[in-house]
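Practice problem: predict the structure.
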Amino acid sequence: MEIEKKFNIGDYTIIKIVTQDFLLENCYIIKHSGCNEIVIIDPGYNMEEILKETQYNEMHIKFIILSHAHFDHLGISAELQEKFRIPCYVHINDKRMLMHADMYAQRFAGCRVKIPKEISFYDSDKLFVFGEESFSVIHTPGHSEGGVCIIFNNFIFTGDTLLFESIGRTDLPTGNMKHLSQSIKKIFELSSDHMLIFPGHGGNWSIYEAKKWWNENKHIYINNSLGFD
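Answer:
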């Protein structure tokens, strides 16, 4: 595992770490210049890199947010929570999937994942205070029933809802193509064209590029009723 890229956007620094196995899941560490705290989105299996980044810069982890409860995004959330005594936020509609994450990890990847003992569940769009600003978490079901996207002023973390020139698959438990299509529409309605998309897998792109691609290709996905990641 290694740090792939670092982005400086306004008062924020975003560090992207990719789990280097066949899952290639993106973990994001977000720092705000106005405080010594960080937020982690989808830790994956990146404990060494996360600890290195936090300890080197003497940063405090404020909390973890999961874009959804699939095991590759959950990863070492439990271990981080136990070590730092921090909350982990998951949408309530993914509670059942979270409880079965270890079973899915063994079945689909031949690995194990520990389920956090304490989870902060929420059931609607939520606002978080971070540094001197705030960001919102919006419910975007489709890839999973409890999928969410995390929206800052100039960038958005889309989990597996919207990927680079692709979308999350909908043939897994609680997946639904109609809901995913509605969630993508919701993302576009709440975002500006210039905003940068940080997805759960793969590379980054802008809302403008994503809108253009989706308008040209959505009929393919809707007709096939599934995505590809």
